[in-house]
Please model this.
Amino acid sequence: MNRIFIYDTTLRDGSQGEGISFSLQDKLAITLKLDDLGVDYIEGGYPIANPKDESYFKEVKSLKLRHAKIAAFGSTRKAEVRIEEDKNVKALLLAETPVVTIVGKSWDSQVKNVLKVSLDENLKMISDTIAYLKSKGREVFFDAEHFFDGYKKNREYALKVLQEAQASGADAMVLCDTNGGSLPVEIAEIVGAIREKIKGMLGIHVHNDGDLAVANTLASVNQGVRQVQGTINGIGERCGNADLCSIIPNLVLKMGYRCLEDKGLRKLTEVSRYIYETANLLLRSNQPFVGVSAFAHKGGLHINAIQKDKGTYEHIPPESVGNERKILISELSGSSTILAKVEKFHLTHDRKFMKDILEEVQNLENEGYQFESAEASFELLVRKKIGRYKTFFDLEGFRVIVEKRENGLPVTEATVKVKVNNIQELSASEGSGPVNALDSALRKALERFYPSLKDMKLVDYKVRVINPRSGTAAKVRVIIESQDKENIWNTVGVSENVIEASWYALVDSIEYKLLKEQEVETEE
Amino acid sequence: MNRIFIYDTTLRDGSQGEGISFSLQDKLAITLKLDDLGVDYIEGGYPIANPKDESYFKEVKSLKLRHAKIAAFGSTRKAEVRIEEDKNVKALLLAETPVVTIVGKSWDSQVKNVLKVSLDENLKMISDTIAYLKSKGREVFFDAEHFFDGYKKNREYALKVLQEAQASGADAMVLCDTNGGSLPVEIAEIVGAIREKIKGMLGIHVHNDGDLAVANTLASVNQGVRQVQGTINGIGERCGNADLCSIIPNLVLKMGYRCLEDKGLRKLTEVSRYIYETANLLLRSNQPFVGVSAFAHKGGLHINAIQKDKGTYEHIPPESVGNERKILISELSGSSTILAKVEKFHLTHDRKFMKDILEEVQNLENEGYQFESAEASFELLVRKKIGRYKTFFDLEGFRVIVEKRENGLPVTEATVKVKVNNIQELSASEGSGPVNALDSALRKALERFYPSLKDMKLVDYKVRVINPRSGTAAKVRVIIESQDKENIWNTVGVSENVIEASWYALVDSIEYKLLKEQEVETEE
Model:
């Protein structure tokens, strides 16, 4: 059997990550996204933990899912409580999910020191809870918490816990590396030994504290595990859970397993970015498979080679996971980088042009520009060079004033004077800082002529001092990331004056937006 | 032999990462930091690639390193070129490093399609280069590029490449997973087979495209590899190189190997953060071992359990890698750091004072302050708290104007009004940017009262956006480094307004200078 079942716990264990908090609407939207991706199970929350999760289980029933089954998560019944009266178990049933996942302890010292019950009572708590939920028609998975640590200390008891769960009817026994500190060789050895003894479906749930969660998951699959638990982007408490964005492509593209439905794999990058956006987290650009730099090439030699043979520096085709290749421009790269970038303008045969643009990029880079993270500015540069560019507005001037009196808050005002089609427009705006005020004033002046600028917003702003040893007279590079309904783009500005550097990046950003729009109109 | 040699390539392969660009000063400072950490080899750069690396190799000779050896990196000689005349090999010798690392091809199709030379000529290029560098007294490592991909396609040739390198005198044969796409089971199997045939020292250099770089490195060590290459924080092209911040603690704490010198492991977190700061990258909070959330506990149950038994949700003691536990609900982070810093005031016994200062620091850190790299500001904070502080001047107000007309240079003016001993002083100054103008105006106003300020200058200025997703309304943290004839000190300011943030850091810097002087006078 080469089918692996994907159990996503982004909404439950993932939401334990620092700074992560999903609203009810977020959780429902993510559920649809995960279903579209094609995961088999979606662990939606912990019904007893908070009212938000309770509402989630109510509302999720009205979503039309294509494939995924929703799971509710909770603990075994409490010690010395009748199962029908256990609050947690009641809440799990009220969630009315087809699947219930129960966590129980499998490390003897945890049972004694944290739960403070006897080893036998713990076994009863597990078997009671599973049998009861099975009798209510649920598919039941059993998460054996701290399984690997427990097995290392008392393998007999850890095994007994699994046997008890299996005997009570659990549909899968999930081995958890709760501390996330196990090594792949240990995981392989222990799962191999368990596989001999437990005939039912085995699952794996590992954390990434040793930076080995993906490897540990794959090692367990090699030993016969068929249910894989993890989260999108590996979000979760401490160092996070195993990252499904890495596990799934490894399983499918490298190990020949089947998971997700048709075409699901190609949606992986999109789903990854969606989760970052919804969780309001910065995406990790060098994230394997789905990161924006995952297929980015910088060294000139590499780029030369990749044009000859794509397999040279790419372990998989980027499009197989819905990602794309990116050629970076930097001082380390020779002309081949720029060549690749300019390809879309069909100008690479023009040797004089190529020489000119190369020289200009190098000059600008010497001044402190950096185009690898500011492709929109690079495109504007090329367009200006080849005449495929029109000015949308002329700057007549700007003025920014920051004023502070004693210990009061500073007051910041910007005025901008621009000319569009020979009509002069003067605008003024306050802001929380000089760049913010300038940005507001500039938009205010231009929106009258270009109403679509309302759709655009600045989402990221970076300042870097280029030659820091010059103190406050140092040059700064400003990089701005902008976004509208369809696109994200980056622009750059450099100056000894942080306001001027920001201004250049702001202007590029607006011009790029207007240019793209104009092109769409022309095509239509 | 349980000693593993750590070969750091942060400065070379790491700098290929998207958005990473180290200045010469950065590279030298990082070299000292890595040496202090205790790595065995520091690959400093690619002498032929650019003038910055050339200068690095000149200047690095004057650094006093405790332990690390510097390595220069380059390719084998070109085809059909006499070794003495090969530009790259000449550049490598001119770098005058004790170690030279040579990269050569070991994948037959790459030799044919990218290098476009015969398989035999490639072997000669490798042996010539190694033998020649050995004859010049260098320690020589051979990086077998694409080794694992090559071995899978043509194991006979890949092996021959290693044998040739060994026969020519290479001190280590480094197996590279250049595409970063191999699986741990493949790595283990291939390294195991190679170990049988190659008796010399083996090294490993892997990339993280499959999210398996750490696991792949550990798998190769299990098979006898003794030199491990990687970068701090795993920075590097695409998905980065293997992360030494994860590899080293796994090797030492879990697998019982020796690496780094005494106490090196405890510096790991500090070095990780230093590299992020220098590269101006946002740190990855959930990074294993060294991330700020790596030992952060959120769930109430977890915190309860961790108080009963620290091993419950921690795979290693956080302090073993210089990190610390963080309880997210009660926000107790940083207390040990603060304790250490307050010690010199002999006040750690004063519980109320410690509680107050802890609270204030935590509040400021929540606002975006960071005192780790701004100890002078921290000292001022403590002095204000305990009354060992006097005001040297009062700010009545400042105003900064930046004005730009069409395409002219911007004009920047600052006026500052201060009061010293009830005498009001108003001054104005121009500058290359708003902070520079403000700095000049403030000094001008104060030098009349405090002539020693003439000896002081600002040597470094850093701006960092703290919450980048807020665009231009984001908060910024400014860190200023100042210097006089005897000392160097750092101060910090935070605000949504970059001018105000800079102002706070400037004022702290001047006050700190005056305070130190006053103390010297008092002592005399």
